[in-house]
Write a structure and sequence with these properties.
It is built from eight helices and 13 strands. Helix 2 packs parallel to helix 3. By secondary structure, it is an alpha/beta fold.
């Protein structure tokens, strides 16, 4: 899911971008109202984490712009404004959720998962193809209810393939997805991870289309 973080605190933003990528989001970062509106104009953002106190204006102005768009991403306000009145204003203007700073990262991620389920982009916290199950919230995998031990990169690679079940993903597409999630890769990393995954998964679960890419059947 493509997420836009609108936050002018550089240190906080850096930590959140890294953590959100680890949670599987593709993250863009804006520091100002103008930057946020520009990034939102292409209609590709699905979820916005929005600070209100921005250097060139109020984050609520971004929210007003979002709610006038044809394609409207979900919005979670993340701000130091913690009064009941502020929360009511934000929610009445169309925010899907409101979380005051300081906050616990685990609570933020849980709230984002709830919003994702509401959007229908993630109907549950699990993915299943054939007899392979991924628990996205717990970062655990299993085959016929037997747990698999997967390093993080293998888990994220399998997640990308299962999210696109029935569609062929090229090596470069898989590399891009891992990069977007903040993973460092070597030159032949995809081939190595696919090889290791195949040892742990049912036979022919991941198919190779020579010269094209990899696919998991629905």
């Amino acid at each position: 899911m493509r997420l836009l973080l609108v936050e002018d605190d550089a240190l906080l933003a850096q930590g959140l971008v890294h953590s959100l990528q680890k949670e599987g989001y593709t993250v863009e970062h804006a520091q100002t109202v103008d930057m946020a509106n520009s990034m939102l104009s292409n209609g590709e953002v699905e979820l916005v984490v929005l600070d209100l106190g921005l250097p060139d204006g109020d984050g609520l102005d971004v929210l007003k712009v979002i709610r006038k768009q044809k394609t409207q991403p979900a919005v979670l306000i993340l701000t130091a404004r913690d009064s009941v009145e502020d929360k009511i204003i934000g929610l009445d203007l169309g925010a899907d959720d409101y979380l005051a700073k300081p906050f616990e990262a685990k609570e933020l991620f849980a709230r984002l998962r709830v919003i994702s389920r509401r959007l229908g982009n993630q109907s549950s916290s699990t993915l299943q193809c054939q007899n392979v199950l991924l628990d996205l919230a717990a970062h655990q995998a299993s085959v016929d209810d037997a747990p698999l031990v997967l390093p993080r990169k293998e888990f994220m690679l399998l997640k990308a393939l299962m999210e696109n079940a029935g569609r062929v993903l090229s090596k470069s597409q898989l590399e891009n997805k891992l990069y977007q999630w903040g993973e460092e890769l070597g030159s032949n990393a995809i081939e190595v991870h696919i090889h290791n995954l195949r040892k742990k998964l049912p036979k022919d679960f991941i198919k190779t289309l020579r010269g094209i890419g990899y696919v998991v059947a629905k």
